[in-house]
Design goal:
Layout (H helix, E strand, L loop, with lengths): L37 E3 L2 E3 L5 E7 L1 E6 L1
Antiparallel strand pairs: 1-2, 3-4
């Protein structure tokens, strides 16, 4: 599947159809919990229970719980 992207987005525009998912909007009863960082030695830090996924796009990105 070839994606129509803005010229400023510098990623490969062809992806496998199996990687495409339909967007699902949050239901009213679902809430996104906004977590606040903990300050340790005047530096903000978050506690991570589990790393679910990781991706590399110039920098390492993590999906965490």
């Amino acid at each position: 599947m070839k994606l129509k992207l803005l010229a400023s987005i510098r990623i490969y525009s062809v992806v496998n159809v199996s990687r495409i998912e339909q967007y699902r909007q949050l239901r009213k009863e679902q809430k996104v919990e906004e977590l606040k960082p903990v300050e340790v030695d005047e530096v903000e830090k978050w506690e991570v229970n589990k790393i679910n996924k990781q991706k590399v796009r110039g920098v390492m990105n993590y999906l965490v719980k």
